[in-house]
Amino acid sequence: MGREKNILFPSLQRLLSEVGGNIRLARLRRKFPATMVAERSGIARNTLRAIERGDPSVTFGAYANVLHSLGLEKDLGLLAHDDELGRKLQDAGLPTKARAPRVISKHFTKKKKHE
Predict the structure, then answer these.
(1) Could you write out the three-class secondary structure of 1-14?
(2) Can you give the pTM of this predicted structure?
(3) With the C-alpha atoms ordered 86, 87, 89, 93, is the resulting torsion angle positive or negative?
(4) Is residue 64 within 8 Å of residue 20, measured between CB atoms?
(5) Around 68, how many Cα atoms within 13 Å sit in the side-chain half-sphere?
(6) Phi and psi of 35, rounded to 5°?
(7) Distance (Å, rounded) from C-alpha 54 to C-alpha 18?
(8) pLDDT in tens, 50-89
(9) Burial level of 59, CB count in 10 A (0-12/13-18/19+)?
């Protein structure tokens, strides 16, 4: 059984490709060879190549490790930093549920037989 392929919206794929390109440019500006960045990040060179292409099948942790090895780990703190939509919803005072509805699984609804 093979791994399921991630299918992204085209706009997200373009964004990931842009992020990968930015990572590649950051590596080249620092004049770091791909082998060294991959080694410092604890990933294979092929994985680094996939990150620089913006491949969605690479884990977020691998992206984070590469950013760390380039000294760009603080950029991760900027993700979702300015939640414009969330702030607008909060300011509008729209009623929201305090928590998500509870989902009861079949496992917990069955009564166990005592021996």
Answers:
(1) CCCCCCCCCHHHHH
(2) 0.71
(3) positive
(4) no
(5) 12
(6) -60, -45
(7) 7
(8) 999 999 999 999 999 999 999 999 998 888 888 888 888 8
(9) exposed
At position 61, the amino acid (one-letter code) is G
How many angstroms separate the CA atoms of 63 and 73, rounded?
10
Q: What is the residue type of 44? A: A
What lies within 8 Å, CB to CB, of 75 at 6+ separation is 67
Q: Hey, what's the torsion of the CAs at 33, 38, 44, 45, to 10 degrees?
A: -20
> Which of 65, 51, 45 minimizes the C-alpha distance to 19?
51
Residues making up the chain, counted from first to last: 115
Separation of alpha carbons 95 and 108, rounded Å: 31
Q: What is the DSSP code string of 36-78?
A: HHHHHHTS-HHHHHHHHHT-TTS-HHHHHHHHHHTT-GGGGGG
Residue 115: predicted pLDDT: 46
